[in-house]
Amino acid sequence: DFKRKENIDKWPKSHIDVKFKERRVKANAWDYNDRFSYADNRIKTSKYNIFTFLPINLFEQFQRVANAYFSVLLILQLIPEISSLSWFTTIVPLVFVLVITAVKDATDDYFRYKSDQQVNNRQSQVLIRGSLQNEKWMNVRVGDIIKLENNQFVAADILLLCSSEPYGLCYVETAELDGETNLKVRQALTVTSDLGDISKLMDFDGEVICEPPNNKLDRFTGTLYWKGNKYPLDNEKMLLRGCVLRNTEWCFGMVIFAGSQTKLMQNCGRTKLKRTSIDKLMNTLVLWIFAFLICMGVVLAIGHTIWETYVGTNFRVFLPWDTFQISAVFSGFLTFWSYIIILNTVVPISLYVSVEVLRLGHSYFINWDRKMYHSPMGTAAEARTTTLNEELGQVEFIFSDKTGTLTQNIMVFSKCSINGQMYGMDRLKKKTACVDFSFNPLCDRRFKFFDSSLVEAIKMEDPAVQEFFRLLALCHTVMPEEKSEGNLVYQAQSPDEGALVTAARNFGFVFRARTPETVTLCEMGRTVTYQLLAILDFNNVRKRMSVIVRSPEGQIKLYSKGADTIIFERLDPSSENLMYTTSEHLSEFAGEGLRTLALAYKDLDEDYFKVWMKRLLFASTVIENREDQLAVLYDEIELGMKLLGATAIEDKLQEGVPETIACLNLADIKIWVLTGDKLETAMNIGYSCNMLRDDMNEVFVISGHSLQDVAKEHILGLSRVSSAGHVEKTDAFADDSVFEEAIIAEYALVINGHSLAHVLEPQLEHILLDLACLCKTVICCRVTPMQKAQVVELVKRHKRAVTLAIGDGANDVSMIKTAHIGVGISGQEGMQAVLASDYSFAQFRYLQRLLLVHGRWSYFRMCNFLGYFFYKNFAFTLVHFWYGFFCGFSAQTVYDQWFITLFNIVYTSLPVLAMGLFDQDVNDQNSLRYPSLYKPGQQNLLFNKRQFFLCTLQGMATSFLLFFIPYGAFPLMVKEDGSPFSDQQAFAVTIATSLVIVVSVQIGLDTHYWTAVNHLFIWGSLMVYFAILFAMQSDGLFGIFPSSFPFIGTARNCLSEKSVWLVVLLTTVVCVMPGLVVRFLRVDLFPTLTDKVRRLQQSRKKQGPQEQNLRRVRRTSSRRSAYAFSHQQGFGELITSGKNIRRSTVSSLCSPERIAQSHSSSWIENMLKRKNEVSCASPESEGGAPKSVKGTVCMDPTDQAQF
Fold this sequence. Notes:
Layout: H1 2-7, H2 13-20, E1 23-26, H3 30-34, H4 53-61, H5 65-77, H6 88-120, E2 123-128, E3 131-136, E4 145-149, E5 157-163, E6 169-173, H7 175-178, E7 183-187, H8 198-203, E8 207-210, E9 222-226, E10 229-233, E11 238-239, E12 244-246, E13 250-257, H9 263-266, H10 277-310, H11 328-342, H12 350-368, E14 382-383, E15 395-400, E16 407-418, E17 421-423, H13 452-459, H14 463-474, E18 479-484, E19 487-491, H15 495-506, E20 509-514, E21 518-523, E22 526-536, E23 544-550, E24 556-562, H16 564-568, H17 576-591, E25 595-604, H18 606-619, H19 626-637, E26 642-653, H20 657-666, E27 670-674, H21 679-688, E28 698-702, H22 707-723, E29 727-729, E30 741-743, E31 747-752, H23 753-759, H24 762-773, E32 777-781, H25 785-798, E33 802-807, H26 813-818, E34 821-825, H27 832-836, E35 839-841, H28 846-884, H29 897-907, H30 909-918, H31 924-929, H32 935-938, H33 945-969, H34 984-1006, H35 1012-1032, H36 1035-1040, H37 1050-1054, H38 1058-1085, H39 1089-1103, E36 1112-1114, H40 1132-1137, H41 1158-1169, E37 1190-1192, H42 1197-1202
Parallel strand pairs: 15-27, 15-33, 27-32, 28-31, 31-32, 33-34, 34-35
Antiparallel strand pairs: 1-8, 2-3, 2-4, 4-13, 5-11, 5-13, 6-7, 6-12, 8-9, 9-10, 14-35, 16-17, 16-26, 18-19, 20-21, 21-22, 22-23, 23-24, 24-25, 25-26, 29-30, 36-37
């Protein structure tokens, strides 16, 4: 190793990286570390800088086929031989679109840049040349030794060297990483834990060889080389960027990863350009339209060639050709390009301007929605991007994190059963008063309980009740902190364990302090010290925790808490009757979605305990099968216990979570929960949210550890669903909908991370997807951040569905960036997910309104807008095509050039914008009340290739009528003075006026929801048309610009004739009436759900407001959630070793008298001699079954009857 270390300086950097795939970092050695070109600590989430903005942004914008298309047209218009239109008709709108989009993109990126600068300019204390100096975060380098103080963010991924706590311990909050607010413990190596002096740290020259940068938040592998020795490093020695130092005065660490190479930033991924499905469809449609345009150009060019050959030669006597045109074929070739320019308005550039304006408006509607404003935190919903709004109306899959997203990660002691008596009431009942704990000066003022009979039992000194709370105060691994008299703060490895200790505290059994050998309580005002003889710690196999203590009277007792099924198996027969009663209470607790634990105790004989302790000492020192031997001893002493009762804890869901999930399920949105929690915890949350129910046909649990096991479980599950005969194929949505299965039965799938790793292999991923899509609920547990992204990518790749990912921590960032739409929860758990998201708000329940109201409206408005836009532009443009057959295919325009320029920009732009911004088929209350209204968006029914074809067909028919009705009428018409209508200019004005009126009437018929803005824009645009028409064809403008305004007096002469207005009226009626009849018949004979709800809404509006009758369904699950512990090995060994006990204690505490026992002291000494392998794992909070779940029925019974 040392030879390789000496030779490394001679090798090229690229050879180092490829050869070893490892990182080498030396403390206080900048020159050595600089050879490897490691990333500095500057972060950059913005996409552009001042030099790259223009080329990159233009490149992104010209990925839109339409922008490239208009650029080509602009070039063609600059050629005078083929252009009959001025170049400004294209370049002005094109530049306008490019500038508007660029400004929007620059603004978005500038905010990202400001956020980066705010983080990069934070201050950190760095050890430089023998002293601590303040440096900006961006100047911190790999190998630096930095000092952190309490409540400071960790600047980079650092190796913990020492801290102010005993044995190099420190506490960190990882909310920015995983959304969990409970504290995690980290511990420095023993050899570095005493480097608290600046001089010692300056002399520290250890070298770390470790894994290369990666995104695995829960794993680190490395080795410290120092003074000729090697020391193993793991994740428990690391403080990751984004963590916050808590309850630790200071600590020192050595920077291992910095900036973009930190695990936090590795999980952020690259900022991808997200495009909506409508954007992608638009690119396809533009290509179709361009092909159609070429076909029209070819037809007209061929017609021109034939006309010139057989008819045009007769005109060359007084209309000679230029020398440039040498043949009819070449003239036809030039005419082809001329018609391409004239007919290009079938896809006007104003369409893209309007789309951007609409998206911006829809984004502001989300930002301004007061019903999505969370007043306790002062947080409003925010659309962080303006390009994905209509995609919100097409979501079929939601991938959600659990902790901090569905749950608040707050545990509340809600109910309990003691000696067969149930205590605790439903606090939602208005008449229930909160218990007064004023009798206890050490109570936690924030704790609330709603049954005063339990306090009365405590005051009456009921022995069972006292023993119950004594157990809660003794049997745990919580660490107390008392900075002032009575001001207690508990640091628990999981929130639910803290809730139990807090409950005991409020009922008079206050946990005050602990040492490695004692636990001190204040029992009803009396200080009592118990000798801690042993901790039988929790693990996933035991599912229980026990402590053995000696009371001041010398009595030895074992106290145990755990899963009811585990505790009941170990009870003494004398507790059988009590067990049955308690079991009934547990079932009731579970039915309310509460997490339950059973509590039991056992009196131990002194002689028996001494023998057992000797056997424990021996088992704890053996090398082979140590864990198995310890487990046997634990099982032996935990037999024959007496039942005390049970606890019920509420894992508080965020407000409205069950109702939101129920409503989204009714909208056919599939919700998958992807969580890092263990299987039991994830399932508990599933039951509490009503995603899992007892009445489901089956819940498939896949937890195999090998590829063969997983494949067998998958195939078995799929065969059960298929053989049950509950799945029917349907072709109704085969083209546009992702789901091709109509599920009659209800199944759920729960899969753990180990199995998921195998399932994501190519040979099994299709089976996973097939089985998952047949299930109503999918829960993936113990998944890594990368696996979350892989699951989302799997659905995106194989299913034509819009996906949405929602989370609140850095471990959700990859998933958020991979999904079509990313949503960040801007709660108290951190802002990493918000910074990477497309939309953010404070509570999961707002997702319901975001999708069912804003998303559906945005999709509905955009689809109506596009359909109408294509209709009016085909009607406007194709008049030139019909006119070509009557003008010798000469590429002459029907309309005045100014009308062509202003039609989309002025005459028809504002009405269609008003419709696209304000239109709504049903109001927001009914959008939420009838979630099935969301389904057309998922099935892509409102705007697809078929709808586009129908719109263009209607536009073509309208253009045909617009041209041929006036064309047929004009030869038969005469003016009032008897002269005929023979001029082309009057014909053009008549068609233009008819066109503007027809499209205005049509948009009036297409508008579902009229506002003052709609009226103003539609009728105002008509008035503006006539005002501009008369102004441009007036004598005054002709006198100033005779070549630009040739239609002098045409409008005045033409529109003063009654016969012209009769032609305009006839054209309007004939163009509009067929569509009106078809629409009336369709709504009357084949009404959609939207039509029915609109009719109901209108009838209710006439009747006046009515109170909604929303029926709630109570969940009646019999499942019990009994995992009020961390998912990993507990802190028992750490506590008994004394390494986490502070050296100073509160002066107000009475110094307890120690009872020296030879067997207990030797046991402790043995524990202290063990290797520095104490697992202070970062425990992930439990997510069991929270509060009572009440699913909302989104349609009242009277409405169901009407349907």
